[in-house]
Amino acid sequence: MAKVLVISGGSSGIGKATASLFAERGWRVFELSRHGKGSKVESRKTKDAVEIIHVTCDVCSEESTRKAIAEVLRQTDHIDVVISNAGYGISGSIEFTEIRDAEHQMDVNFMGAVRLTQAVLPQLRAQHGGRIIYTSSVAAALPVPYQAFYSASKAAINAMALALANEVKDFGIQVSVMMPGDVSTGFTDARDKSTAGEDVYVGANKAITTMERDERGGMRPEQMARLFYHIATCRSPRPQYVGGFSYRVLCLLDRILPKRLVNWIEYKVYS
């Protein structure tokens, strides 16, 4: 029986690369997104075409998310791994970010993960097993100036995942977070950038330009896909993973060095 992956935000970027890798390796993949469509990849074992099944889902809607999982379970009787990957980014100063934009950032990135979690847990509990993996970000551990609400949404995911891991442990469910560093995808161009207040926060444009330059020169999404596959298939997954060696070093230094020093270094990087 083929293992089943459900992945939100699987129509582009890291999500698309991950969906493709799992399908190539024989998994039955359900890709949840608002505007995606079914696709096919070549199986690495049989060289046959393998379908990635698209299910329309808006993670900002509880009804849409629950209907999407119901559709998955109409087509299969089990779910082995759920990857909560849907998200987007906004940038701008905290002072001048519209409250509605900050709320939408949290609604998509954090509450979207909550809705997906609540929708899949009844099935995972019933089958007494499965894994949930969340896409977070190094920005959760090292918050980026002028990307505060994105950083906050990912930090919230980290906190929820650690709490959830203990809540569902007795049901045989394992929970992990993957925190990518800079990855070169369409995520950068899709960022909702606000220029409000740049006459006051004169360093904002340079900080955002630096951040986007690093993203465009970042890792390939296929690297993150391979890490997701490792988390999904290893015997005993860790609670948190960091994508990219240099970013693992940075996160280690964050735990060792005084927070004041780490924050000062970030200031110098982005100023």
Q: What's the mean pLDDT score?
A: 93
State the end-to-end distance.
54 Å
State the total count of DSSP E strands.
10
- Give the strand content: 15-25%
Please name the CATH architecture. Answer: 3-Layer(aba) Sandwich
Shape by Cα distribution? globular
Question: How many DSSP H or I helices?
Answer: 10
Q: Would you give an account of this structure?
A:
About 50% of the residues lie in helices and about 20% in strands. With about 270 residues, it is α/β, with parallel strands linked by helices. The chain has helices at about 15-25, 60-75, 100-125, 140, 150-170, 185-190, 205-215, 220-235, 245-255, 260-270, and strands at about 5-10, 30-35, 40, 50-55, 80-85, 90, 130-135, 175-180, 190-195, 240-245. It has an eight-stranded mixed sheet, with helices on both faces. The protein has a two-stranded parallel ribbon with strand order 6-9. The model has no long low-confidence stretch (mean pLDDT about 95). α1 crosses α8 and α2 (about 60-75) runs parallel beside α3 (about 100-125).
Offer a few descriptive terms.
271 residues, alpha/beta, Rossmann fold, 10 strands, 18% strand, globular
Structure, briefly:
This protein is α/β, with parallel strands linked by helices and 271 residues long. 49% of the residues lie in helices and 18% in strands.
Q: How is this fold's topology laid out?
A:
Blueprint: E1 4-8, H1 13-24, E2 28-33, E3 39-42, E4 49-56, H2 62-75, E5 81-84, E6 90-91, H3 99-126, E7 130-135, H4 138-141, H5 148-168, E8 173-180, H6 187-190, E9 192-193, H7 204-216, H8 221-233, E10 240-243, H9 245-256, H10 259-270
Parallel strand pairs: 1-2, 1-5, 2-4, 5-7, 6-9, 7-8, 8-10
Antiparallel strand pairs: 3-4
